[in-house]
Inverse folding.
């Protein structure tokens, strides 16, 4: 019953779900990108920073665990993408380093650079971090320029010792030359800003900010929808990277991703439910001034949509990290996963995930019994 | 073997990893130790209801928070660098090495990051007992996190529970419990965590001593210094015990590292342990006749005893390990570097031949090559080394780091004992000289902690994974310019953040616990 193939699919499902959760939690970054536009004075900025500052560790921890989980379950992707798309990943990491200290340091005396600098760090993390993550994920559908030859490590070949070799001198930045990649990058950026606006509507005890946040839901929700639809439609009508399940030969297939949606009806249904959740969260908040639960619908919708999109990238005999210079170097869940034994061990550990999710929900709720306002901030015990 | 590698790129990748790890370990030890100290303080507060303990808890928690932020900032780069700069490594051993990292994320880091929010923001939102539980869970999370990272690191020093798979061209895990229960992992965990406790104890004692010198926050300082001294004394005594365990394991599994730590070129039966010494810079080759020391003070036979639990045991020197021919503990004869290299090359050739035979579906032939590969795989990594010298870590760095670390460790045992004694006699406030010594000893604890990692990591060179994969074969296909640029980028960033962190801490300390408490409550 629990075959190697089952474990590989199970771990791709976990990675996809983790990515979905990560994109939802990037609302923190989305909020950071609006610090200088949504907030008009110091009190408002302080309120936004503190509302987001109570959640940044969840996003950060999810990103760290996501990276480690990729390393453990699909090490060939980890070694190929991170080394090859060097600059994309280094810039993403750079942004997150800036974020990690900025909450704690910004209001402390002696922080040298001043609060505005740390808020600028948060802004950079909010814009660049989300956009580049979107671009990196887009390459799952558009491909990258690399070759993989595991035999290189013997040093006997003519290509040098390294297994994964990137062919573009831009080391990942060449992904920015594709408008399709830009579309997903921008849709992630605007989605996270939309989610942040919905979060503020839900959490803040501040009429002005709440009303402004409602407008920001619309201002960001529309560009999100436009860029997401362009990416989605473009992907559905494009050729995809299909894998022959018998021979493991990779070839181009017309409408591959559309076929994947059609071949996996459950995935399609959850994808549509996710999209509907996001749309409902956005439009109910915009059109009903008393509706404050948009973040719940859009949050769950985001998790579902992103999870299903990544299942479409990896399931149904599809190369999830395709190479455009050598199709046979493309990375699939079969050729990139850890061994059956390791996936078994990791799967046992994954049984702890419900416990982890349980205590996260407990901690989240424990700190959110009341709405968050300026008065609340004064008695909070650890304000930024 | 022509490796077609750019040595500048390899060196910049090493420098980048070393720099990130060095910065990371500046902040992590303090959080590991402060976590315990503030948890104990809060426990006392909850038990006694004495507000002064709450004040003390919140003060140290503030310092913890500042360190935690910069600790995770440097930590994320470390994790992803395995992929960015060490891609061959990531594929070749990712099947084994990745597991402890993801378990750390799921089991430990989430625990720490979740409950830290209740610890910081929950004082007025959850009950006292719930808050205390959150504080302890944060501490447990941080400590568990260290455990899984050290399981991964220990495996690099002593790779077990694995088998090479020629079809996937990588090492694969065969025994998870062998990894987790590796004696090196267990010992490393205690040694590293205790060193964190030691750093935190030195920090708490030093800051408290400063308050006593300037006669501010005297009650808080007395409480903290006494607890810090007891905690520090116990930590450093246990550090000595686990350090002994480390030395024993190094002698069994990494004899070259032990020889380098001691600057021992010629092996001896009944070898002495060097207490202090100066290496001779004229010693240029492992096999020249130059005396390796200008001077040395050693305790006779102690190295043999520490390494092999036998006063007369033979401890191989660097030259012996290169030349081979001496008797190992199991009665077999040690192989020379040349023999190991030959076996490594046989393993690589067998792997290449196996792949060719397999692709041509010559199964019987493939099986023969597979057997040859397995027979020689223990020395696979030697195929990448050219000369015997490639197998020798940097002797001066390892030697001085080791001895300085031990000397500082012994110094702290004595210091904490004296402070403890003066505290019991109620004479701490009048012993200003002792308070100044306590204050100025803070950097020493950091230095010792860094030196410990330098011994562990420089002493392991040239290997990323002992005997399996040397550093220069573990890299990614990058240009040295790219790596140099990111090195500079992170060096500037980390240095800037370190300066900010230190000045913030100094300001917080100058404010003192009363001010911090007041600001936290009524800000």
């Amino acid at each position: 019953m629990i075959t190697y193939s089952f474990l590989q699919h199970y771990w791709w499902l976990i990675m996809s779900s983790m990515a979905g959760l990560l994109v939802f939690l990037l609302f923190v970054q989305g909020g950071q990108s609006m610090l200088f536009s949504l907030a008009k004075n110091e009190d408002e900025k302080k309120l936004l920073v503190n509302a987001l500052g109570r959640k940044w560790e969840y996003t950060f921890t999810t990103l760290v665990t996501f990276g480690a989980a990729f390393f453990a379950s699909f090490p060939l992707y980890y070694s190929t993408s991170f080394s090859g798309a060097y600059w994309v990943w280094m810039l993403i990491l750079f942004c997150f380093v800036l974020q990690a200290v900025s909450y704690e340091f910004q209001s402390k005396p002696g922080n040298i650079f001043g609060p505005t600098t740390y808020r600028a760090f948060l802004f950079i993390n909010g814009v660049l971090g989300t956009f580049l993550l979107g671009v990196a994920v887009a390459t799952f559908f558009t491909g990258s320029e690399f070759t993989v030859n595991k035999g290189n490590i013997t040093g006997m070949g003519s290509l040098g010792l390294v297994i994964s070799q990137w062919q573009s001198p831009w080391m990942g930045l060449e992904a920015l030359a594709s408008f399709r990649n830009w579309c997903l990058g921008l849709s992630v950026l605007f989605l996270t800003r939309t989610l942040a606006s919905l979060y503020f509507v839900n959490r803040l005890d501040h009429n002005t900010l709440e009303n402004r946040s409602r407008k920001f839901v619309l201002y960001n929700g529309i560009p999100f929808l436009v860029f997401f639809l362009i990416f989605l439609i473009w992907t559905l009508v494009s050729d995809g990277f299909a894998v022959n399940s018998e021979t493991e030969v990779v070839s181009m297939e017309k409408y591959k991703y559309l076929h994947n949606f059609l071949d996996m009806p459950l995935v399609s249904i959850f994808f549509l439910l996710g999209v509907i959740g996001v749309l409902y969260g956005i439009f109910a908040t915009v059109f009903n001034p008393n509706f404050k639960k948009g973040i719940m619908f859009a949050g769950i919708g985001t998790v579902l949509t992103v999870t299903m999109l990544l299942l479409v990238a990896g399931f149904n005999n599809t190369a999830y990290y395709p190479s455009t210079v050598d199709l046979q170097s493309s990375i699939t869940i079969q050729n990139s996963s850890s061994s059956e034994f390791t996936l078994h061990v990791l799967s046992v550990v994954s049984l702890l995930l419900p416990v982890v999710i349980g205590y996260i929900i407990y901690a989240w709720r424990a700190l959110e019994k009341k709405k968050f306002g300026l008065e609340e901030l004064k008695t909070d015990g650890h304000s930024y | 073997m022509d490796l077609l590698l750019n040595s500048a790129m390899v060196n910049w990748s090493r420098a980048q990893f070393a720099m990130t790890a060095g910065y990371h370990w500046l902040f992590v030890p303090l959080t590991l130790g402060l976590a315990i100290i503030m948890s104990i303080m809060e426990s006392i507060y909850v038990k006694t209801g004495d507000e002064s303990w709450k004040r003390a808890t919140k003060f140290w928690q503030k310092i913890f928070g500042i360190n935690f932020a910069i600790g995770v900032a440097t930590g994320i780069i470390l994790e992803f660098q395995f992929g960015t700069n060490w891609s061959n490594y990531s594929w070749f051993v990712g099947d084994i090495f990745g597991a402890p990292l993801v378990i750390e994320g799921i089991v430990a880091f989430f625990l720490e990051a979740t409950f830290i929010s209740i610890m910081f923001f929950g004082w007025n939102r959850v009950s006292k007992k719930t808050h205390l539980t959150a504080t302890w869970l944060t501490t447990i999370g941080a400590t568990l996190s260290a455990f899984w990272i050290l399981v991964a690191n220990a495996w690099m020093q002593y790779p077990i529970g694995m088998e090479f798979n020629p079809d996937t061209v990588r090492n694969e895990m065969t025994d998870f419990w062998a990894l987790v229960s590796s004696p090196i992992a267990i010992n490393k965990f205690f040694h590293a965590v205790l060193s964190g406790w030691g750093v935190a104890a030195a920090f708490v004692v030093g800051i408290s001593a400063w308050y006593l010198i300037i006669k501010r926050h005297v009650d808080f300082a007395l409480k903290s210094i006494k607890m810090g001294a007891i905690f520090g004394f116990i930590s450093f005594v246990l550090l000595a015990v686990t350090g002994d365990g480390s030395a024993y394991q190094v002698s069994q599994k990494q004899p070259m590292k032990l020889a380098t730590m001691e600057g021992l070129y010629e092996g001896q039966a009944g070898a002495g342990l060097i207490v202090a010494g100066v290496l001779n810079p004229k010693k240029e080759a492992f096999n020249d006749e130059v005396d390796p020391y200008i001077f040395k003070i050693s305790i006779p036979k102690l190295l043999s005893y520490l390494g092999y639990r036998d006063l007369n045991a033979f401890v191989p020197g660097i030259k012996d390990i290169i030349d081979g021919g001496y008797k190992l503990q199991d009665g077999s004869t040690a192989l020379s570097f040349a023999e190991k290299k030959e076996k490594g090359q046989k393993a690589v050739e067998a792997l290449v031949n196996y792949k060719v035979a397999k692709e041509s579906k010559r199964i019987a032939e493939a099986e023969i090559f597979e057997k040859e590969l397995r027979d020689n795989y223990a020395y696979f990594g030697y195929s990448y080394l050219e000369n015997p010298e490639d197998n020798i870590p940097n002797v001066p760095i390892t030697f001085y780091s080791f001895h300085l670390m031990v000397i500082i460790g012994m110094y702290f045992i004595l210091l904490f004992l004296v402070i403890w004694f003066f505290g019991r006699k109620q004479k701490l406030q009048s012993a200003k000289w002792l308070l100044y010594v306590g204050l100025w000893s803070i950097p020493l604890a950091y230095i010792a902690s860094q030196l410990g990692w330098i011994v562990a990591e420089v002493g392991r060179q040239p290997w990323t994974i002992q005997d399996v994969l040397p550093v220069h074969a573990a890299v990614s296909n990058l240009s040295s310019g790219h790596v140099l640029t990111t090195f500079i980028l992170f060096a500037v960033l980390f240095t800037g953040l370190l300066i900010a962190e230190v000045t913030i801490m100094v300001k917080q300390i100058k404010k003192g616990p009363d001010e911090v408490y007041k600001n936290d409550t009524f800000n």
